[in-house]
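Q: What residues go here?
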């Protein structure tokens, strides 16, 4: 039971969120020229942002102040697309680290389990 409680944040972070954030941080100018790639990655970052907001709510963490409804500029230059994606992934990474630090991580003996 304690293991399940401890891992409830690490599994989504490890298998879904972290790889997507790493990919976004590596966004190159060449990738920024691919409109489909940029759109897909932007949508994935928005989904991750919703997941992180849900985790923050569940842990009763105040969400970090966010700019008013940040929208990705559709007609932005390629460099702007890459910069926005890298910036957004950095913000989401900081929020995820904050969640991981605040998540309960009780050792089994404290959760009422005994190894005897």
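A:
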């Amino acid at each position: 039971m304690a293991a399940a409680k401890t891992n409830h944040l690490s599994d989504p972070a490890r298998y879904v969120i972290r790889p997507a954030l790493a990919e976004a941080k590596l966004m190159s100018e060449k990738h920024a020229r691919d409109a489909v790639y940029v759109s897909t990655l932007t949508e994935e970052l928005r989904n991750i942002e919703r997941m992180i907001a849900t985790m923050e709510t569940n842990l009763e963490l105040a969400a970090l102040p966010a700019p008013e409804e940040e929208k990705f500029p559709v007609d932005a230059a390629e460099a702007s697309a890459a910069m926005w994606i890298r910036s957004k992934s950095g913000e989401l990474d900081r929020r995820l680290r904050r969640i991981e630090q605040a998540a309960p991580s009780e050792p089994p003996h404290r959760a009422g389990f005994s190894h005897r």
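A: Context that may help when evaluating the design: The longest helix spans residues 78-102. Helices lie at 2-25, 29-32, 35-58, 78-102.
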